[in-house]
């Protein structure tokens, strides 16, 4: 599956521009995490770090969200069905998408799956931080400002902090460094995100 095919599928399945932007944000974060973790884990085979595959997992992780909003137990499974019908998506890619939803896949078996699990929630937190800035721009968001909001449980309460903290437990990336990687990735596509 190509990025172009994945983008087309995502925009067909999701009507909400905000959910589309969320997919783009997680795509960008996954791309950066792939590069970062490849350098940090030279002992792992290179095929573990297919940057395009990681990015597509991020792009499509919530593609069926609107279609299953009333029954989240089916979240990611509709995307899986569509990918299987289209062909061209590897089992690894499908498992990567399913890995961010604990209700469907309870174990994360590789760095890509662990990354999408943590990146999903962090992208939402960073977006929320940008939206409370006077200019509502990612360019004015700093790692420190995200870290301060991280500790405020009432702020962006839907961004599950425990899931974000999987960066430390499952990826061995300190939280502050994880925030830095994700923020840089999102700032790199700020025009696409309208932030």
From TrEMBL:
Keyword Hydrolase recorded: yes
UniProt keywords, alphabetically: Hydrolase
Superkingdom of source: Bacteria
GO molecular function, one term: hydrolase activity
Domain HD positions: 21-123
Name of the protein in its database record: Metal dependent phosphohydrolase
Organism: Candidatus Daviesbacteria bacterium GW2011_GWC2_40_12
């Amino acid at each position: 599956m190509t990025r172009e095919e994945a983008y087309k599928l995502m925009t067909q399945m999701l009507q909400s521009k905000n959910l589309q932007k969320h997919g783009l944000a997680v795509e960008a974060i996954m791309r950066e995490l792939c590069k970062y973790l490849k350098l940090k884990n030279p002992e792992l085979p290179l095929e573990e770090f297919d940057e395009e595959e990681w990015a597509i997992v991020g792009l499509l992780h919530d593609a069926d969200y609107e279609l299953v909003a009333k029954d989240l137990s089916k979240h990611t499974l509709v995307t899986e069905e569509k990918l299987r019908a289209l062909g061209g998506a590897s089992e690894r890619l499908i498992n990567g998408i399913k890995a961010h939803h604990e209700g469907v896949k309870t174990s994360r078996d590789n760095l890509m799956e662990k990354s999408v699990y943590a990146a999903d929630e962090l992208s939402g937190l960073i977006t929320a931080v940008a939206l409370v800035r006077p200019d509502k721009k990612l360019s004015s968001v700093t790692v420190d400002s995200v870290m301060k909001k991280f500790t405020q449980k009432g702020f962006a309460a839907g961004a599950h902090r425990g899931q974000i903290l999987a960066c430390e437990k499952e990826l061995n990336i300190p939280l502050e460094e994880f925030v830095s990687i994700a923020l840089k990735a999102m700032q790199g596509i700020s025009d696409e995100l309208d932030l």
